[in-house]
Write a structure and sequence with these properties.
Layout lengths: L1 H33 L4 H32 L3
Helix pairs in contact: 1-2
């Protein structure tokens, strides 16, 4: 029972990260379309933000998988 809940938590972490990175990518493409001369700065900020989101998602998945393995209540 507890492993199932932990698996759902890990899945939600991945889903949230995917949605967040997709939103960042879409917003960055709109910004580059509006100001092509600022594309370098926009891409840099986008990559940094995406990396931070991936890091948080990785922690969420690890915590979820540890919950599955150990059966933490």
């Amino acid at each position: 029972m507890y492993g199932s809940i932990a698996a759902i938590g890990a899945g939600l972490a991945v889903l949230g990260a995917g949605l967040g990175i997709g939103k960042i990518g879409g917003s960055a493409m709109e910004a580059i379309a509006r100001q092509p001369e600022a594309s370098g700065k926009i891409q840099t900020a986008m990559i940094i933000a995406a990396a931070l989101i991936e890091g948080v998602a990785l922690f969420g998945v690890v915590v979820g998988l540890l919950g599955i393995e150990t059966g933490v209540k």
